Automatic annotation (TrEMBL):
PANTHER family: TRANSPOSASE, PUTATIVE-RELATED, TRANSPOSON-ENCODED PROTEIN WITH RIBONUCLEASE H-LIKE AND RETROVIRUS ZINC FINGER-LIKE DOMAINS. This is Retrovirus-related Pol polyprotein from transposon TNT 1-94. It holds the Pfam family SH3_retrovirus. InterPro entries: Retrotran_Ty1/copia-like (IPR039537), RVT_2 (IPR013103), SH3_retrovirus (IPR057670). Keywords: Hydrolase, Metal-binding. The keyword Repeat does not apply. The lineage of its organism: Eukaryota, Viridiplantae, Streptophyta, Embryophyta, Tracheophyta. It comes from the Eukaryota. The keyword Protein biosynthesis does not apply. Residues 238-281 form the Reverse transcriptase Ty1/copia-type domain. Residues 72-121 form the Retroviral polymerase SH3-like domain. GO terms for molecular function: hydrolase activity; metal ion binding.
Amino acid sequence: MNRTLLNKVRCLLISSGLSKSFWGDALMTAAYLINRSPPVPLSGKVPECVWTDSDVDLSSLRIFGCSTFALQNGDKLDPRAQKCVFIGYPNGIKGYRLWVRNQPGLKIITSRDVTFNELEMPCLSDTSNRETDFNIENTFNKIDLNPQDNQTREVIEEEENQPRVTTRDNTEHHYNDYQLGRDRVRRETRIPSRFRDFDLALNVEDLEPLTYEEALGSKNSEQWKQAMNEEMESLRKNNTWVIVPKPKNASVIYCKWLFKIKQENETTRYKARLVAKGFTRKKE
């Protein structure tokens, strides 16, 4: 699942022209999109619909990194809208997460009243904001899903009809410079609500097939076929069975396939095992 999300994060950052400091927003957007895309194991059903048992409105989907104008309430002579960049969807509320450019610090707002210009990608034309190296794999692999957010201060304005504003102390985040403490004893914690989309995407994407038909119908069918062929070849070499005529009135014990996805270092292995259904044997 890490590789799937990483590929989507890389594509979002490159296509939008945003810097690597926005990897967190790109990650949450990638998980948001995965949860609203029909995977093969769910037979065309959308994961979010299956999880919540309700319909999902896809009309709010927008192009990551496009230009936007957010309505703002100010003085009579102030501009009625503020130009921003779309960077994702807030968790738990309706609206859009927007980055206000040309502002001191890193100003993030959440607003419902937004006009989109999806033909304009402002960060692609800003050469000072683009980075030639998008190798963020090392950064992504070091993410702690439960960080103590000591480097970020969020201030939320609750005034009615005002967009929610988040201010961050530092203009540019260099996550490679962070020292993550691994030596201290970790206490049991709950996953924050902002990672629920990420967790749901993980459950759907890495779903192991329960039957032979599901394995052949999944997007990884070729890997499962190879795993089953390797299992059958191993059973033949070890002379696991001897083919004999079926005795009269004999109760036959059938077999079934078990499928498992194993992560070894940075590689994914698909394992298949053919086992006898001994629990179906009847006592005489």
